Q: What sequence folds into this?
């Protein structure tokens, strides 16, 4: 038996979730299923939205942010976020070969983005216990100590959404059509 959660709308959400859902709708022109489910916990919804906004302001470029997000989604086996971020990566014109590599777990053709991918993978798999050699390799690829910590912010953002999706079985949104994903074996 699957536990059922409510996908809230602005009208059905708890009062303290409504302003966040209204802001999400304004930003995306609709309320994604993820945020509709998160609305059950106004604190989770607000925390996720704030982390999302903060990561967007980081010194990592939009393509680098998507590498962090897609890598985390891959490692956490999140079908919903992988489909969503594939769509977002295409919208910012990330190279198709980079997106394909992130979806399949292969090497990214861009060496800088590959270094970011390797480091993010280590952060997720090793729960932050990345070796000094791993950090130094990341820094040697042209990243900064600030970027090391910004990766933690991006991973934390995706942990909130990935885990929520696992718990509530979030269905894909229509905008994700064509970007469905299952983790390769």
A:
């Amino acid at each position: 038996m699957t536990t059922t959660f409510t996908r809230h709308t602005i009208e059905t959400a708890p009062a303290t979730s409504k302003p966040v859902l209204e802001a999400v709708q304004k930003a995306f022109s609709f309320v994604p299923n993820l945020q509709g489910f998160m609305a059950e916990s106004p604190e989770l919804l607000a925390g996720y939205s704030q982390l999302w906004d903060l990561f967007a302001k980081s010194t990592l470029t939009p393509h680098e942010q998507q590498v962090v997000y897609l890598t985390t989604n891959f490692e956490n086996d999140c079908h919903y976020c992988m489909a969503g971020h594939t769509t977002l990566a295409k919208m910012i014109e990330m190279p198709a070969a980079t997106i394909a590599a992130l979806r399949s777990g292969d090497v990214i053709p861009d060496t800088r983005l590959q270094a970011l991918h390797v480091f993010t993978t280590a952060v997720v798999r090793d729960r932050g216990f990345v070796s000094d050699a791993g950090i130094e390799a990341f820094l040697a690829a042209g990243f900064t100590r600030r970027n090391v910590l910004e990766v933690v912010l991006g991973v934390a953002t995706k942990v909130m959404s990935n885990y929520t999706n696992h718990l509530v079985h979030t269905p894909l949104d229509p905008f994700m059509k064509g970007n469905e994903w299952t983790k390769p074996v």
Remarks:
- The mean pLDDT is 97.
- The CA atoms of residues 70 and 82 lie 6 Å apart.
- The longest helix spans residues 145-168.
- The radius of gyration is 16 Å.
